[in-house]
Specification:
This protein is of the alpha/beta class. Helices cover 21% and strands 26% of the residues. It folds into two domains: 225 residues, Aminopeptidase (3-Layer(aba) Sandwich); 106 residues, no CATH class. Helix 3 packs across helix 7. Keywords: Hydrolase, Metal-binding, Zinc.
């Protein structure tokens, strides 16, 4: 089913159309927007989606800058600017999704219900029509922290795409209805997490990566065979029970089920040894947390343990996407973890 008028279209937009700033451009957008730019080799297309989450602007900032510079890309480029509706709600770029809406990056599978489902379905239809050789989906992380890529396939083409931005690659067999699952259509698809939404380095990386993505004749072969990538496989998601409370504090106040230090984000991608405390657990114990692997098993004993009210890793682990945003911690997940070696915990 196609949904007419779900998307707006801009072909080879001029600087006048774009406005002087990304904010001015966003102001002019009325809907999720498709931008098409003709390349030197019109027989091929590369796609990039961004702003799937309305509070993750690095990809849009990069695209605006790149379009203003009026580059001619190596191949045709198809850009999908997704979360225009939540992004426009003041204060601009503050909402991941509409207050009553669904997370768009969980909607790329049937049934395509509601407004977000219709947007996801229309974006997939654009991808099918354009038949791109690859797809990138550019995001920001909720906190600060280094960039990384996420994929459901770890082959040379996916590694090559990730290497345009970062040397950290997370491979997951978990299927959530994310756009990167488009890889299953035989089109290499990689999610890029550029770093924090308010981090200038993340905006720079999004731009530099886009320049590489649009200008290289070949983005699906690794430039150097010795690319030093850290692959983290099948991380488990540690989630908080819906009724549990979380606080970020240097010591527990006794009012929350779990307390994490405010600088917990510094643990992102580092190895945490079994002797290093992560935070504090309340009277309800670890039962307020779940650790879910890609095969939907649950085995908290292999991830965390409690000693004198403090939380420790049950073995040396590597954690990432630790958030200090209590809304994300409650609605999405607290953090992801693998063994220190990068192998799955279970
Ligand atoms: Zn995101």
């Amino acid at each position: 089913m196609s949904h007419p008028n779900v998307l707006d279209y801009l072909d080879n937009p001029s600087p006048r159309t774009l406005g002087r700033s990304p904010l001015e451009w966003l102001d002019r957008m009325q809907k999720p927007t498709v931008v098409r730019v003709a390349g030197r080799d019109p027989s091929r297309t590369r796609a990039m989606a961004t702003l799937l989450h309305g509070n993750e602007p690095s990809g849009l900032f990069a695209l605006h800058r790149w379009l203003l510079e009026q580059h001619t890309p190596e191949v045709n480029m198809l850009f999908l600017i997704a979360g225009v509706y939540p992004a426009k709600i003041p204060p601009t770029f503050s909402l991941r999704q509409l207050p009553s809406g669904r997370d768009l990056n969980r909607c790329f599978k049937e049934p395509f219900d509601g407004e977000e489902g219709a947007i996801a379905e229309a974006m997939l239809a654009e991808l099918h029509r354009a038949n791109p050789e690859c797809v990138l989906d550019v995001h920001n992380t909720s906190g600060t922290g280094p960039a990384f890529a996420v994929t459901i396939t770890n082959d040379a083409a996916h590694q090559a795409l990730a290497s345009l931005y970062t040397d950290r690659l997370i491979m997951t067999d978990l299927r959530l209805g994310a756009l990167m699952e488009y890889s299953e259509q035989e089109v290499p698809t990689v999610t890029i997490e550029c770093g924090g939404a308010h981090d200038d380095h993340a905006h720079e990386l999004a731009y530099d990566g886009l320049v590489r993505y649009a200008s290289r004749p070949d983005v699906l072969s690794l430039e150097k065979a010795d690319w030093d990538v850290a692959v983290l496989r099948n991380p488990i998601r540690v989630e908080l029970a819906p009724d549990a409370t979380i606080e970020y504090s240097l010591e527990p106040t006794g009012r929350a089920d779990i307390t994490l230090p405010p600088d917990i984000e510094h643990r992102n991608f580092g190895v945490i040894s079994p002797g290093e405390p992560l935070g504090w657990i309340g009277k309800r114990g670890l039962g307020i947390l779940t650790a879910i692997g890609h095969n939907q098993t649950e085995n908290m004993e292999k991830v965390l343990r409690v000693e004198d009210g403090q939380i420790y890793p049950a073995q040396a682990i590597r954690t990432f996407m630790i958030t200090t945003n209590p809304v994300i911690a409650k609605s999405d997940c607290l953090f992801y973890a693998v063994k220190a070696t990068g192998e799955p915990i279970f």
